[in-house]
Automatic annotation (TrEMBL):
Residue stretches making up the Glycosyl hydrolase family 13 catalytic domain: 13-363
SMART domains: Aamy (SM00642)
Domain of life: Bacteria
Database matches in SUPFAM superfamilies: (Trans)glycosidases
Protein's UniProt name: Alpha-amylase
PROSITE patterns for this protein: PROKAR_LIPOPROTEIN
Taxonomy of the source species: Bacteria, Bacillati, Bacillota, Clostridia, Eubacteriales
Gene3D superfamilies cross-referenced by the UniProt entry: Glycosidases
GO biological process: carbohydrate metabolic process
GO MF, any single term: hydrolase activity, acting on glycosyl bonds
């Protein structure tokens, strides 16, 4: 069997400006903090819970929250220097942890060099064609005396003109630098549904020429994913449909909902994404923490049991292994992105941490959980059983949302299964 690093992966997701307690405004200057070097001290914790892939981002120079990029070749000075991140990347690789960075390519910040040139020279700028919807007979809320397209009306985020080959090459050259300098293994593509597909084709060609197994994962929130999941485009997308289904089904004690959803996506005969490996998560930097979404903390154990056993690549958002809470307040994300003191790692909720560690060990040792198809065995409101199969090997998963123990009894592929599952628990056989 050919081993693929992405199938073998269990991700940890860090939003670094929050994780390292950076100021939310980049005041500029050369006051590099070297904060990102503390990530080296955090590696033992990630390894303890079985992590072997890190998605970290955004890390490039920006004015505020990181998604208003001003320089694609420079680590944000609030985090450190390029040389700092090189040291971090080397340590991650020594510990067999893959690296995936945030690629924010749909838009840039207002301090991006080409946009500043447009503000300075207006119609006379050589960079006018770099931006989408640029009009000098209109104005914007910053009173620049011209209009431009932005991401969802947020004028801080200036939309690039991806039809311009100079723009595409500027971005693609930066990605090649990331691979050469830091040996990264993949990119998470921000706002992928807003980006021209031809850019993804070029990105795929350029990155696979550098690394044959380079991984491209797009942030897609709504709709079906098949448009982007093509051999010449993206390898995976964010599985928001699964994210919603897991906590909703556990809160309502109606596993029929999540069962229907997973069957629709991954049924071994007609699933929409059969054979694809989507990026699965239960929270991230843009949505409420799962501990704030779930009605009863006891159900967090089943949350992660489901996450680690379904088709796809599981990802833990930093801090959620301790069950920390966080809500979006008035549309703000600060509470979702707290600082972590690497020298005093939280020890509360160690039972949940150890549960995730156990799940990582089970997944590591189960070929079907990493490579197998999906077959639903039974699906009732309170109980759910499914199988993952690969090359004659089978792993069976039984989920019980009832407070009381439940006995699962069924015949699957000629074998009789009799499995006792405690209340609000999962058995993996």
């Amino acid at each position: 069997m050919e081993t693929k690093w992405i199938n073998e992966s269990m991700f940890y997701h860090i939003y670094p400006l929050g994780f390292f307690g950076c100021d939310m405004e980049n005041k500029g200057g050369d006051n590099e903090s070297h904060k990102i070097l503390k990530l080296i001290d955090y590696i033992p914790h990630m390894k303890y819970i079985g992590i072997n892939a890190l998605y970290i981002g955004p890390i490039f120079q920006s004015a505020t929250h990181g998604y208003d990029t001003t320089d694609y070749r420079l680590i944000d000075t609030r985090l450190g220097t390029n040389e700092d991140f090189k040291k971090v990347a080397q340590e991650l690789k020594k510990n067999d942890i893959k690296i995936v960075l945030d690629g924010v390519f749909n838009h840039v910040g207002r301090k991006f060099f080409a946009f500043e040139e447009v503000r300075k020279h207006r119609e006379g700028s050589q960079y006018c064609s770099w931006f989408s919807g640029l009009r000098f007979d209109w104005n914007n809320s910053y009173n620049d005396g011209f209009h431009y397209d932005s991401w969802e009306g947020h004028e801080l985020l200036v939309k690039l003109n991806m039809q311009n080959p100079d723009v595409r090459n500027h971005l693609l050259d930066a990605v090649e630098m990331w691979i050469d300098e830091w040996d990264i293994d993949g990119i998470r593509l921000d706002a992928a549904d807003c980006i021209d597909l031809q850019f993804f084709r070029e990105l795929k060609q350029r990155t696979t020429a550098k690394k044959s197994d380079f991984w491209l994962m797009g942030e897609i929130i709504n709709g079906e994913y098949t448009r982007w999941l093509q051999p010449d485009l993206l390898d995976a997308v964010t599985n928001y449909s699964l994210f919603n289904g897991i906590y909703n089904s556990l809160n309502s004690k109606n596993l029929c909902d999540i069962g229907y959803n997973v069957n629709r996506e991954f049924n071994n005969e007609w699933g929409l994404y059969k054979g694809k490996l989507l990026y699965n998560f239960v929270d991230n930097h843009d949505v409420n923490r799962v501990a704030s979404l779930i009605n009863d903390p006891k159900d967090l154990f089943n949350v992660y049991s489901i996450l680690y056993t379904l088709p796809g690549v599981p990802s833990i958002y930093y801090g959620s292994e301790w069950g920390i809470k966080g809500h979006k307040n008035d549309g703000g994300d600060i509470e979702l992105r707290p600082a972590i003191d690497v020298d005093n790692i939280p020890i509360e909720n160690q039972e949940l941490v150890d549960h995730i560690k156990k799940l990582a060990e089970i997944r590591k040792n189960s070929v079907p959980l990493k490579y197998g198809d999906y077959v639903q065995i039974s699906n009732e409101c309170l109980y759910w059983a499914f199988a993952r199969n690969f090359n004659g090997e089978t792993t069976v998963v039984c989920v019980n949302t009832d407070d009381n123990p439940h006995h699962f009894s069924f015949n699957y592929n000629g074998r009789q299964y009799d499995i006792d599952v405690n209340g609000r628990d999962t058995e993996i056989v």
